[in-house]
TrEMBL record, chain A:
Encoding gene, per UniProt annotation: ARL2
Chain positions recorded as GTP binding sites: 23-30, 69, 125-128
GO molecular function, one term: GTP binding
Protein name: ADP-ribosylation factor-like protein 2
Pfam families linked: Arf
Residues the record lists as binding Mg(2+): 30, 47
Keywords, alphabetical: GTP-binding, Lipoprotein, Magnesium, Metal-binding, Myristate, Nucleotide-binding
NCBIfam families assigned to the protein according to its UniProt record, in alphabetical order: small_GTP
Family statement: Belongs to the small GTPase superfamily. Arf family.
CDD domains, sorted: Arl2
UniProtKB/TrEMBL annotation, chain B:
Protein name, per record: C-CAP/cofactor C-like domain-containing protein
Transmembrane segments: none
Entry keywords, A to Z: Acetylation, Chaperone, Cytoplasm
Homology family: Belongs to the TBCC family.
Organism for this UniProt entry: Mortierella hygrophila
Amino acid sequence: MGLLTILKKNRQKEKEIRLLMLGLDNAGKTTILKRINGEDIDTISPTLGFNIKTLEHNGFKMNIWDVGGQKSIRSYWRNYFEQTDGLVWVVDSADRLRLDDCKKELHELLQEERLSGASLLVFANKQDLPGALTDDQIREALELDSIATHHWAILGCSAKTGAHLLNGMDWVVGDIGSRIYLLD
Amino acid sequence: MLEVTKENFRASFDPMRVEVERDLDNLPNVPKTQIQAAVDNLVQRIQLLEKAVTDNITILPPYDARVCLEAVKAASERLSVLRGKLVPRPKFSFKSRKMVATATSPSALQVSNAATPAIATQSTVDTSLFMTFENQTGEYLFIGDLQVPNAVAQHDASGPSPSTMMVDTETIYLGGVQVNDNTTASGPAEAEKPKDVALTNLTDCTINLVHTLPLGAIHIKNLKRCVLVIPPVSGSILLHDCEGCTLIGACHQSRMHTSTNMDIYLHVTSEPIIEDCTDMRFAPYPYQEVLPTDQLLTLFVAAGLRPEKNLFDHVKDFNWLRQQQSPNWRLLDASEIRQGIAHHVLYTQRA
Ligand SMILES: Nc1nc2c(ncn2[C@@H]2O[C@H](COP(=O)(O)OP(=O)(O)OP(=O)(O)O)[C@@H](O)[C@H]2O)c(=O)[nH]1
Ligand SMILES: [Mg+2]
């Protein structure tokens, strides 16, 4: 029995998925997490460490890790890589000034060996803002089409209105599920 | 807000629940173009119902709590089934590819290394949708003098460059002019959407952003010795590379970076943060100087800001993760607070 098979079997019992949510500061990660969880989103402070929430979705238990994106704490991101099934990369679609930063950080992450098996969901957040770039524009700006190492998808969403958040979760859970659990 | 008691909880919860159930019944009749919005709306309302129960769980009789939570769960399950049936699959763009057996194939990683361009290409993004002031010295800058980017044009890829419209400068708040008379050309729906502002490379300028125009995030970069007044905004104030400025602003989040020697008069409903900053001094927002209370409250409400919650003195320094006070910031003493500075910018200096 190969390593992958054993891994698969062990996880099959719990059907647990570990999602790591990253992105530049102010992208809206914590707002997305709280919105999905039905919590108040009006008084969220910038994240100094991390938040974790466990949610049931389509029969899976999702552990979502939301880690702060301020520059001085990005170096801690790597402490959360282990065992990650899905990376959720959140983008402030209206923050045109920092798209290059955003691209650089994402592509650096994708070279991380410990994230190499993870599915990548890009949330083009803040679509409710009139100045927001569309998902296609973000896809181009982040050069997603150059990614050959990960399954990926991009979806426009708004943490403010809740639009498309669950669709994104559907995709990432489905993609991970089909790789890890239903492969036999 | 009215106080919730165990006696009146059901009286407010049940009608909301009934409305949600009614809208769930009606969901199959909603036109296709509106189904996503209707579902989003129901998701939010069901979340509110759930929150109402969980917030009050300690005061509710166990029976009520159980009944209400079961109603929430049932509604949420029904919605999820209906959503699956009724909502067209969203427009995803994704690239599928054969799975790389990463656990056994380190070569996949090398491909990834090689494929990532080492040189960052210049972003070709159009920044014209920000309302922008940049590269000025010694000027008085008023947001009412700027053209408002028209977002409708942006999504129309076939059109030429985004068209613009002028803000009607008669609708400004100053001097007791009407508050709600917003007569911008694009109609209320577009005008109500908050616009993001960028302020870059300004020296010795006075910047006045107080206007009827709803503002979202304020992106500030490289300001020297400026004074700026920002009305309640629905997004964050994001500041980089500033020095010797006085900033007066009200926002959801305040995030300040690589700046020094700043006086900051703030209303912020979450903990303000500083990163790589020194000599930052904080004080409360000078409410009365900016606008008469009723007009200011209107702006707070429009921006979704809680007027009674101000955490200006709960500053978190990302470079000082210890219990003791950070050496990089302090509160302004009462004697140091410069009375009248906002008023001067908004009224005296403008005239
Ligand atoms: N208009 C709009 N604003 C949003 C949306 N999502 C988040 N925001 C705002 O963006 C700001 C940042 O949100 P956060 O959730 O704190 O961002 P974050 O990614 O967790 O930031 P860090 O914790 O510093 O990494 C807040 O002012 C939010 O209200 C959205 O969909 N639309
Ligand atoms: Mg956060």
